[in-house]
Amino acid sequence: MAMQNQTQYTPSVGSGQGEIGVNGDTAGNEDDDKNATTEQRTARKWSRRRFLTGMAAGVGLLAAGCGADDPTPTATPTKTALPAIGGTPTAAVYQQHLPIVQSQLASPLVEPTLTPTPPKTAAATPVPPTATPVATPFPPGPPSKLGLFVSRNDPQLFELLATGGVAVVKTLELDVNFARQIKDTSPRTKLIGRIDLPQLHLESMDPAGAARDFVNALLIYADDGRRRDTFDGWEAYNEPVPGTSDEMAKLADFEAERVRLLAERGIRSVIGNFGTGQPPLEMWERFLPALHAAKQHDGWLGLHEYSAPTIYHLSTRDGVGRYPGVTPGDTGWLTLRYRQVYNQILRPAGLEIPLVMTEMGVDGLVSNRPGPANARGWTDFQDYWAQNGYGLWGPGAYVEQLVWYDQAMQQDAYVIGGTIYALAASQGWHSYEISGAVTQVLKQYLAVHAGA
After folding, report:
1. Which is it for strands 168-171 and 300-307: parallel, antiparallel or unpaired?
2. Where are the beta strands (DSSP E) in 119-269?
3. Which of 85, 88, 204, 379 is the most buried (most CB within 10 A)?
4. What 3-state class would DSSP assign to 38?
5. Which residues of 103-140 are buried (b: 16+ CB within 10 A; e: fewer)?
6. Rounded to the nearest 10 degrees, how much is the dihedral formed by the CA atoms of 342, 345, 349, 352?
7. Is 443 in contact with 166 (CB distance < 8 Å)?
8. What value does the mean pLDDT take over residues 338-357?
9. Higher per-residue confidence, 4 vs 315
10. 3-state secondary structure at position 13
């Protein structure tokens, strides 16, 4: 994992109108709403916020209608922990995040309050739940470059792959049948593998010998004909940390040698895979030998990019608000840091090789950030987002941030994609888990941003 306000954005879609955010805001329509007649406002279609938050309101009212036979004692609302691995959120989990529901009528229907359910008598008639409106999906757009990090086989992966919008998958699950099913479901999706290894000790490493040892360990998997047909590239060590320029030179020699050894067997390498904010920009010059070898042998560069408390933090769009937009000129020190590396170092050196963000998302382990001190994955930041104008419903707010990063990647031709950490997360990383509600919202987005 990681080492180390209110302009709305408008995507490039054919309608000419602003993107409808997952939590329901439509960019650029405030003045129109003020001037519209009641009939015009009534006739408008449901937005994505109207759908998602309408469902949330329905869940709240359904809960209020249960238990009519017995009086309900007055309760004090408490914060309920988000489940580690998601399913569909229940009213008890998300009632404090219910957003405002915009009615089709001229006056809005305000979100339910958190007052306790009043006691009922046996004769009371339950309040019927409101009907769930038809969802308005994300508007169509260019092919997504979002991808997924998966630790193990999970059925929700194949739901997302079936949309045709998943650019890349990175996995620690090397089962040949699993890999085959990924490719059969989405042939365009790139598949990257990594074997589980202890961290490198760069200070005492012999680069050539370490490269041979790594290749011998990897070939047990990568040289199998069934995996040759499915895996597009292989990482080596995860998030290496060169502390000096000499250690970076050793890492470069290691990566260059393993690139050449694997290329002799027709196997592509994904080099680097540095942690968030790493390495310091001045150290990249010592890594150039590995990049030259990767360019010669059709290799890719891998980087990890996270930020927190939002994905925008420490980018040039930080502090702009919930819909900050992004241009090709925007950069950052955590997310969008890759643009500094390519603009300042790799492109001038003629080394603009294909890039994959082999991990990306929101990660509270980044240092010197605002927000809850002990937060880690995205689930720990939901209250912060609600309190600071980034969306009242956490899963929707997170997908909006991922879409922003996707729009940035789409602007750079050398970027293959970025894998969201994580679907089917490993033990101890459950606060990063995107299965359940995030997956369902993401599926809507990917379905209308599918590749050819």
Report:
1. unpaired
2. 146-150, 168-171, 190-193, 233-234
3. 379
4. helix
5. eeeeeebebbeeeeeeebeeeeeeeeebeebebbebbe
6. -10
7. no
8. 99
9. 315
10. coil
User: Would the pTM count as exceeding 0.90?
Assistant: no
CB proximity list for 92: less than 8 A, separation 6 or greater: 63, 80
State the residue for tokens 């359904």: 62
> What is the residue type of 339?
R
Compute the distance between CA of residue 97 and CA of residue 129 in angstroms, rounded to an integer.
18
Tens of pLDDT along 132-183?
333 447 899 999 999 999 999 999 999 999 999 999 999 999 999 999 999 9
The predicted structure's pLDDT at residue 73 = 42
Answer whether residue 60 shows pLDDT above 90.
no
Q: What is the DSSP letter of 189?
A: S
How many Cβ atoms are within 10 Å of 305's Cβ, its own excluded?
Answer: 27
Based on C-alpha coordinates, what's the Rg of the chain? 24
**Pair of tokens at residue 280:** 């310091």
How far is the C-alpha of 246 from the C-alpha of 253, rounded, in Å?
Answer: 11
Cα distances (angstroms) measured from residue 323 to each of 24, 70, 309, 316: 12, 46, 15, 13
Digit-coded pLDDT (tens) for 264-319: 999 999 999 999 999 999 999 999 999 999 999 999 999 999 999 999 999 999 99
Contact 284/345 with Cβ under 8 angstroms? yes
Tell me the per-residue pLDDT of 355-394, one tens digit each, with 9 for 90 and over: 999 999 999 999 999 999 999 999 999 999 999 999 999 9
The rounded distance, in Å, linking the Cα atoms of 223 and 281 is: 35
Q: Where are the domains of the chain?
A: 23-137, 146-447
What's the residue count for the chain? Answer: 452
Alpha-carbon torsion, ordered 139, 140, 146, 152, to 10 deg: 90
**CA 239 distance to own-chain centroid:** 19
Residue showing tokens 């050449």: 260
Question: What do you get for the CA distance between the two ends of the chain, in Å?
Answer: 32
User: Which residues have C-beta within 8 Å of that of residue 204, sequence separation ≥ 6?
Assistant: none
Put the strands of the sheet holding 190-193 in their side by side order: 233-234, 190-193, 168-171, 146-150, 415-423, 355-362, 300-307, 270-274
Q: What's the rounded Cα separation, in Å, for the pair 79 and 362?
A: 22
CA–CA separation, 181 and 230 (whole Å):
9
Domain spanning 146-447, CATH architecture = Alpha-Beta Barrel (3.20)
Q: Is 229 exposed, middle or buried (0-12, 13-18, 19+ CB in 10 A)?
A: exposed
In terms of Cα–Cα distance, which of 379, 396, 384 is closest to 431?
Answer: 379
User: φ, ψ for residue 171 (rounded to 5)?
Assistant: -145, 150
